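Changelog-adjacent note: as of this version, every example in the card shows the full chain rather than a window. The one below runs 145 residues end to end.
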Amino acid sequence: MQTALVKLPDYPRDSMRLTDGHWEGEDGVRVDLQPQCAIGHIVGDGAADAVGVVKVTPQGTARFYTLVVWRNGHGTPVPFATESLGDRTPVVSVTVTGPAVTVVYRTRRESDPSAVNTLTRTAVYRVAGAGLHEVSHVDTPYAGG
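Full-length structure tokens:
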């Protein structure tokens, strides 16, 4: 199964097509659809849309996580909006309530080392125009585990 072409903010390639949730570039970069996803009315056209998480794994230690919204194009998923969550910010869960997308993920303060997640962030996103934008978030301490 293949997706429509999708462009990701954390990978400079023009676009790619995931096959069975995976894509691998000639440069060794891997792109993988993560299990966290949700269905709901996100875009505002009355059809059920999908939001999921894609992980971009370049060579090295970085792991970039991106939210992707696919609108329902008459029963066909069409990439609509993306929003980068950053490097080494694994997603715990994604839910949709009305047009709001709530994402729980691990992150850190700007002053913390990039290899250590010290916060659990619960962020709310909404589609505005052709983009996905954070409207609020709450951070709680995360000690690992």
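Structural remarks: Residues 22-141 form one domain.
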